[in-house]
Design a protein that fits this description.
Blueprint lengths: L5 H10 L4 E3 L2 E3 L10 H13 L6 H4 E3 L6 E3 L8 H17 L9 H12 L1 H4 L7 H15 L3 E4 L22 E5 L3 E12 L5 E4 L16 E6 L5 E5 L14 H4 L3 E12 L3 E4 L2 H10 L2 H30 L6 H26 L2 E2 L5 E2 L2 H26 L17 H7 L7 H15 L2 H12 L4 H11 L3 H12 L4
Parallel strand pairs: 1-10, 5-8
Antiparallel strand pairs: 1-2, 3-4, 6-7, 7-11, 8-9, 9-12, 10-11, 13-14
Helix pairs in contact: 1-2, 4-10, 5-7, 5-10, 10-11, 10-12, 10-14, 11-12, 12-14, 12-15, 12-16, 14-15
Bound molecules: flavin-adenine dinucleotide.
Length: about 475
């Protein structure tokens, strides 16, 4: 099949049965037409269509050496600098389409899968399963069918003071129940998977597992079709809305988040990549460079978001005539600093790219690690600045229907702005509110903070991983020269 069109994506998703719970409603077929999901489904279809835009096709796709078909560029294993540039350009086109609001565009997990397949030997084999072969076959299957993946990493937030085996019930966190001739049976749950409109779900470990016997049944990595019997998605309330005018972001970009339940789900042997191996679970992301390629994709998206906010802030300031105030300029300059810092991380990570032990040209992890640690700390500041600039303008945004009421004359008079009529100003400030204050905006803020995991533990990892020895030596030498 190769790179899908939007129509192919929608048809495939609708005809694939799944068990998605939206409140008390069970959705099996036709999820892309459901009011809670149709906005994001349509957006995803538009992204897929960009792969077939005659002006973009050479960036968005490449020719698969296996089938001769065009496949998505995020599957490309970079061997040379131009490949990295092509990947980045492609990712930026998708990220710009939503102003960086979408965390689960297909390139995010395709990048991880590409890295893991390139490092297939890491997964090895045992007497029964060839894990290395499984990951390569799975990568090729996803690439050639242009499937959309979601993933679920963390265990339910029941009691974080103890590990999964010490919870009130050892089957709260998803774990192996038994093995049979067809595969492994999984029971329990994972806390979250964004985007239940995917074709497939990756179930990988994230939190560090101890290598004791207790953790062994939880130590696994596998992939499943979302239509696998027993697999259930329990969604939160949708933030989507019909009106694009009132909710310019939520109406199109609410990705939805769901608890994932495994009710004795059979995982076929050929879909298992790690089994009962805590050590491999703890190492896979770093050793295969999956984390590097995910961080690389995320950084491109974060830059798109920074640029979106910079444009938004500038337009708001000019529209209501506050752009000449020094503190307003200072705040917008702060967005410029954040934007250019994130861009510098990207440039540096690519300039310093090296061939990995797996033969893949890999962006420099140090810069990407710094970027993914900095982002949760600065992304909230972007929201804060929009709030500070918008002030009460973020609240004087009556619903669209007022524009066809007799009250319109008041709106036209009192909600006009220095550089915009009332309708233009409403559109702009509704966009700002959807970004910083609506349910959609609040979720974005939370998402950016926890996107790559808990920032506190990520910072500890950075502290422990970063080589500080030379710097300590330099200080010691410096101190030797200090006279008493
Ligand atoms: C909008 C959104 C979408 C998401 N989408 C996905 C997804 O698609 N797939 C997926 O797998 N995950 C997803 N996540 C989950 C994300 O990976 C987690 O939020 C993140 O890893 C933090 O874990 P947690 O939420 O369980 O927080 P917890 O681990 O429960 O932490 C809660 C608080 O307690 C503190 N804490 C807990 N344990 C410790 C500890 N051992 N040491 C120090 N401090 C601790 C934390 O610092 C934090 O402040 C999403 C999260 C959000 C908010």
């Amino acid at each position: 099949m190769g790179a899908r069109t939007g129509k192919q994506y929608l048809e495939e998703i609708d005809k694939t049965p799944r068990e998605v719970w939206y409140g008390g409603e069970k959705i099996t077929y036709g999820i892309t037409k459901h009011p809670a999901f149709k906005g994001i489904a349509q957006t995803m279809a538009e992204l897929y269509d960009l792969q077939h835009d005659p002006e973009l096709i050479d960036i968005m796709t490449y020719i698969s050496s296996k089938t001769g078909e065009r496949v998505g560029t995020s599957f490309l294993m970079p061997k040379k600098r131009e490949d990295l540039v092509k990947r980045t350009t492609m990712m930026k086109i998708w990220a710009d389409y939503s102003g960086g609001m979408l965390g689960r565009t297909p390139d995010y997990l395709n990048s991880a899968l590409m890295a893991m397949a390139s490092a297939a030997n890491f997964f090895g084999k045992n007497e029964r399963i060839n894990f290395a072969e499984n990951i390569i076959n799975y990568y090729e299957y996803v690439r050639e069918n242009d499937l959309l993946l979601t993933h679920t990493l963390i265990n339910p937030q029941v009691n974080r003071s103890v590990g999964p085996s010490k919870q009130v019930d050892p089957f709260i966190a998803a774990r192996i129940v038994e093995k049979n001739s067809e595969g492994v049976i999984i029971r329990g749950a994972r806390m979250l998977a964004t985007f239940p409109l995917a074709d497939e779900i990756l179930v990988f470990p994230s939190t560090v597992l101890r290598s004791g016997q207790d953790d062994v049944p939880y130590a696994m990595a596998f992939a499943l079709s979302v239509s696998t019997p027993g697999l259930k998605f329990i969604c939160r309330e949708s933030f989507s809305h019909e009106s694009k005018f009132d909710h310019p972001l939520a109406s199109r970009f609410d990705e939805q988040d769901a608890v994932v339940v495994f009710d004795d789900v059979l995982v076929p042997w050929e879909r298992i990549f790690i089994l009962e191996d805590p050590e491999k679970c703890n190492l896979y992301s770093d050793v295969t460079n999956a984390v590097v390629f995910m961080a690389h994709q995320s950084l491109v998206r974060e830059i798109a978001k920074c640029e979106f906010v910079l444009g938004l802030a500038t337009l708001m300031a000019e529209t209501i005539g506050i752009d000449q105030f020094h503190h307003v300029q200072e705040k917008i300059a702060e967005i410029i600093m954040i934007t250019e810092t994130m861009k510098a991380f990207l440039v540096a990570s690519e300039a310093n790219a090296k061939m990995s032990e797996w033969g893949i040209l890999t962006p420099d992890k140090t810069f990407l690690n710094a970027a993914r640690n900095l982002w949760p700390r600065v992304s909230h500041r972007l929201n804060e600045i929009i709030r500070q600039l918008g002030a009460s303008g973020l609240m004087t945004i009556p619903p669209e229907s007022i524009m066809v009421s007799e009250a319109r004359k008041y709106v036209d008079k009192y909600l006009q702005a220095k550089l915009a009529n009332a309708e233009e100003r409403l559109k702009l400030f509704k966009l700002a509110w959807d970004f910083v204050g609506s349910s959609f905006g609040s979720r974005q803020d939370l998402y950016e903070y926890f996107f790559f995991g808990d920032p506190v533990r990520m910072a500890s990892n950075l502290y422990n991983w970063y080589n500080k020895e030379l710097l300590k030596e330099r200080i010691k030498k410096f101190l030797q020269k200090v006279e008493k």
